[in-house]
Amino acid sequence: MIKIIKLIIEEHREFRSQIMMLAKSDLIATYRGAALGWAWAFVKPIIHLAVFWFAFTVGLRHGKPVNGFPYLLWLMAGFLPWFYMRDMITGGASCIRKYKHLVTKIKFPISIIPTFTSISNFAVHIAITTVTIIVFCLFGKFPDIYYLQIPFYMLLMFVFYEAWSLFAGMLSSVSVDFLNLVKSFVQALFWMSGVIYNVDKIHNPTVRVILKFNPITVISGGYRKAFIYKEWFWEDKVELLGYTTTFTVVFLLALWAYSKLRKEIPDVL
Amino acid sequence: MTSQDSAETAADKLRKSRMTMAKKKKEAPVVVRFTNVSKEYKLYKTDRARFKSLFSKKIPYKTKKAVNNLSFELHRGEGLALIGRNGAGKSTILKMITGVSFPTEGEIFVDGTISALLELSSGFDREASGMENIRLKCSLMGMSDEEIDKVIPEIVEFADLGEYIDQPLRSYSSGMKARLGFAISVNSNPDILIVDEALSVGDKQFRKKCTKKVQEIMNDSKVTLLFVTHSLQTAQDFCDRGIVLEKGTKLFEGDIEEAIEFYDSRM
Q1: Residues near B79 by Cβ (< 8 Å), separated by ≥ 6?
Q2: pLDDT (tens digit per residue) in B143-173
Q3: Domains of chain B
Q4: What is the DSSP string of B95-115?
Q5: Does the interface predicted TM-score (ipTM) exceed 0.90?
Q6: Would you call A200 an interface residue with chain B, using a CB distance cutoff of 8 Å?
Q7: Distance CA A247, CA A261 (A)
Q8: CB–CB of A174 and B54 under 8 A?
Q9: Which domain holds residue A49?
Q10: What is the pLDDT of residues B234-252, one digit of tens each?
Q11: A178 touches chain B (CB under 8 A)
Q12: Considering the entire predicted model, what is its pTM?
């Protein structure tokens, strides 16, 4: 187990300069060839957000202000990390397939592929976060001490999806069925998380706890803690426990997949 | 004397000079060593069966032995030809030397940077320009930015793509892609050069250029060449030793002339 961790770290150290370059070219490749180019990184989330805002405030007549913040801002704070997580759930699972030529044509450690895919998505996340903070300022809600938690939750999110991509990417390379399974579960994961409702308001205590084992709930809720609720991350112990448990499981699964499949995947892809 | 004749005598000369060098090379350090290497592919009936096999050892599969208990050594500066029909295990051996694929049993030792002229046009980013692809590929081969800046003019000149160098790769013809691939592999100053059927792509003019370039590289006695081909003539031009393979097993190892004779006699 420790040997595999050491191996992955060693591979990252050896290829550190290539990681940033590949992340950059992945980012450019995603947005190149479209007339609007970079604007798509913002247009997609804006439309997404607008649809949900319309459905909840106009359609369901639900959107009351939360903790003194307009409902739109509440929605925005939770959706912000969701865009990254959504891209990483499917994109992470398909990343090794996507960069097949790095696996089958040249000597290249497979563990690097999830890392630069993740970094590439993360760059977009940073940009959207900046825009979000500007929007909050326009509404007269300026940054305060609770914003210090944002980098912390970014780190939690990054580490979790790095492990997830390694695990899911390896399994998807062996079986397309797994990739399809992941793709069909994205919607389910979204609605079973706290992105569009406050998990703490659920009456059934069992469901409430279970949902806190969904890392999407924890991360999304974490951003809202910083932006809206003005709470600290250590205040909710269940949430921290839930996140740590899920992360440990996914992390171990990633190590298991890497040690078991690392040498087999070049022959299979 | 026709131009073909003169080309042949030039090749002859090169071979002779290499033959005399070959004796010295016996003492040169080993750059590639295979020790009892075997490679087995697991063949499952379906992808689903392969997926299930992750969780259970009971899933049945057939094995195909691509390489069987192979041992050989390659010294610095040598030229070695792997000769054999389709399915002899040549590509598998190359994949294992380049580090793409892993052996099931045995040990492989490789010392030095490898440049493989395998499937020249693969591994490119279709949306990126030729120039960006040069940077990308060189960097993946482990070259630093300064080294890349140094070799870029040579690559651009050799590939001879003109204006197309700044166009996205999807607008390239397959010949242009092969040219770019060859230019990168051959100009990246490798210690070990692996040549697959690469020299048989492109038009006659480009083939000639490639052959000349490989000869140039081989004149530098530090570069080791591993050559895989059906074309015995080209093998004879570049190599001083040959290994004949059949169904993953080594049948013969020795001087290139003898190896070719042995291979011909079995056909």
Answers
A1: B18, B218, B224, B225, B227, B238, B239, B240, B241
A2: 778 888 888 888 888 888 888 888 888 888 8
A3: 3-14+76-99+112-266 (3.40.50.300)
A4: HHHHTSS--SEEEEEE-S-EE
A5: no
A6: no
A7: 21
A8: yes
A9: 2-268
A10: 777 778 888 888 887 887 8
A11: yes
A12: 0.81
